[in-house]
Design goal:
homodimer, alpha/beta, four-stranded parallel beta sheet, globular
């Protein structure tokens, strides 16, 4: 939506709609609705939102070890002495770290690639944080690499690339199990997943 | 989503997710996705967004005449001498003014009620800008009132209230036509709309 579509009565409203419309998943209609909502917020709530946007840009850095977004380097996870330093879990995006942390079942370290190898989108190994991963793998205490890229074509290709080109021979390289989602049903599971679940069947 | 679910590594990220999550239609997942998008924006774009939020709060006022959100009172529409001052179009929300202005088919003035009469939601006539409308109707140059509240139960009730309690006898009070949406089909039109379209049929 261009500012022309909006009444000249309120250029700052038009500007806000335009800025919100740039965000992913927010079309012109939602941008308008959000803008009107923001106008009606108590001033302190609106300022809190604006400050949160500014603060996140000012305070966020990449952790020099795991490459995750953080407020300090090393980040709180890398700096946590209670975590196992022998297992590194490789993920595509910072949000994947959140998802895994929520499970509370992994107490090792992470490495965020910030993408996947995707020739169609022009993303090669050099655009990912693979060089940083390689240098971490040269440390002898690392014994296992869990490649937790997504179970997609690109995620699998990236996992294969890591195993072939980066991993030392004595390093255990694993991949998250593929199978039926908990709470799911066989009937609605796609063939590939079902076939993987069958192959990966475990003793009861 | 509470900040507890997010890694302590980035409190400002957690705060932004929380602020975004308060906006209507933005759940925890979208808030997270938006926050990561904002982190990766070039700094000037993120600051532009924050400034737009702040500016809209600082610059927006209610027009003393039509009660629309604007940057000055009277607003650009009310102050426009080329517009007919004899017809006032009553709408529920500021966004309705935008929608009508986009049609370029109305050149009169507006009046924004900021809601509809809705006993279920505890909104009575006193919570709407009806007193302001009444005082505008006392001016003798106003000859027609187009009540463009939504064609919903509440919208209709509000329209009826306006006609009964506010309009002078010599004032023409109209309502937007109900009928088939342009580009729509009879097959997928609900019965009430179709019946309204039939009642309101016009000579070809």
């Amino acid at each position: 939506m261009t500012p022309d579509n909006l009444p000249s009565a309120s250029p700052s409203l038009a500007r806000l709609v335009q800025e919100l419309n740039r965000l992913p998943g927010i079309g012109p209609k939602s941008a308008q609705r959000l803008a009107y909502h923001i106008i009606r917020l108590p001033a302190e709530e609106a300022y809190a939102l604006a400050e949160a946007v500014t603060a996140v840009k000012q305070n966020t850095v990449y952790c020099g070890e795991c490459q995750n977004l953080a407020e300090a380097t090393p980040c709180a996870i890398c700096a946590d002495s209670r975590r196992t330093r022998s297992i590194i879990c490789v993920v595509e995006e910072p949000m994947d770290v959140l998802a895994l942390e929520r499970t509370r079942s992994f107490r090792g370290l992470y490495h965020v690639l910030h993408g996947v190898i995707s020739p169609i989108n022009g993303v090669g190994p050099d655009q990912l944080k693979l060089r940083e991963l390689l240098s971490r793998l040269s440390e002898p205490d690392v014994t296992e690499l869990v490649v937790a890229t997504n179970p997609t074509l690109e995620g699998e290709a990236t996992a294969m690339y890591i195993r072939r080109h980066l991993a030392r021979d004595d390093l255990r390289v694993t991949r998250l199990a593929r199978g039926l989602p908990v709470g799911g049903s066989l009937e609605y599971t796609d063939e590939t997943t079902l076939s993987r679940a069958f192959q990966g069947r475990q003793d009861l």
